[in-house]
Design a protein that fits this description.
Shape: globular
Largest sheet: 7 strands, parallel
Order of helices and strands: EHEHEHEHEHEHHHE
Number of strands: 7
Strand order of the largest sheet: 3-2-1-4-5-6-7
Radius of gyration: 17 Å
Distance between the termini: 27 Å
Number of helices: 8
């Protein structure tokens, strides 16, 4: 299926590894011009090299600290200058500190707000005017299954990722008639550095997979095709949705 992304400029954050990197490669294979942004420069350079090999000859790396408002603003300015526009945004960032509600302090709340909510909204605000003016745009945010079923040990994720979903749902209605779609992915248990941070070792990660109806944890490459589809022309009538890719983990009827 041709997703109609050839030549489109796509910004992917958190693109040096894990879900972000997999999404960047999926867009590169569709011929999108990919801007890969992350903090880790070495891994970022390697990811950009891979993206060029996958089909995005002018893919470029951009270092960014999503917790730093000035750094995010600079990223948007540089990508617009280099690519001429941002047609697609895959908004992805690291998860906030783990912990139960009673274990958190004010500094934890402030850090999670900056990393998990404010940075993502700053990215969305930064790309929307150009998308609306051109009457075409795609935004996909990578969130967590916690937005549909709160996870007891991840209070900050439950709260700030859900706030992000509410903001994106609100924005999606405002821009739908401008040819801009906004969707989100509620990710389940994925074999990434974040999951290792939560489960500590391979044995614990494998046990975590046993709770999933499919019987295992997933890989980033199992997420990327749907993200790429939502960024493409055939998904023009899908907006304001939060779609779970979780192996059946969420218990609700409409997970």
């Amino acid at each position: 299926m041709d997703l109609g992304l050839r030549g489109r400029a796509a910004l992917v954050t958190g693109a040096s590894s894990g879900l972000g990197r997999a999404c960047a490669m999926a867009l590169a294979r569709e011929g999108a011009r990919v801007a890969l942004a992350a903090r880790r420069e070495g891994e970022l350079e390697a990811a950009a090299t891979e993206a060029r090999a996958q089909g995005s000859p002018d893919a470029r790396p951009y270092r960014v600290d999503l917790a730093d408002e000035a750094s995010v603003a600079n990223l948007l300015e540089r990508v617009n200058a280099d690519f001429g526009s941002i047609d697609v945004l895959v908004a992805n960032g690291g998860g906030p500190k783990a912990g139960a509600f009673s274990q958190l302090n004010a500094a934890d709340w402030d850090a999670a707000y900056k990393n998990t909510l404010r940075s993502m909204l700053q990215l969305v605000h930064g790309v929307l005017p150009g998308m609306r003016e051109r009457r075409w745009g795609r935004i996909v945010a990578l969130t967590s299954s916690s937005v549909k079923q709160p996870i007891p040990s991840l209070a900050l994720s439950n709260i700030f990722r859900t706030a992000l979903i509410a903001a994106l749902k609100t924005a999606s209605s405002e821009v739908a008639r401008d040819g801009v779609t906004i969707n989100a992915i509620a990710t389940g248990r994925v074999r990434t550095a974040r999951l290792r941070e939560l489960y500590k070792d391979d044995e614990a990660m494998e046990r975590a997979g046993q709770d999933v109806p499919i019987g295992r944890i997933s890989t980033p490459d199992e997420f990327a095709p749907l993200v790429a589809f939502l960024c493409g022309e055939p998904a023009s009538y899908i907006t304001g949705q939060t779609i779970a890719i979780d192996g059946g983990l969420i218990g609700g009827l409409f997970g």
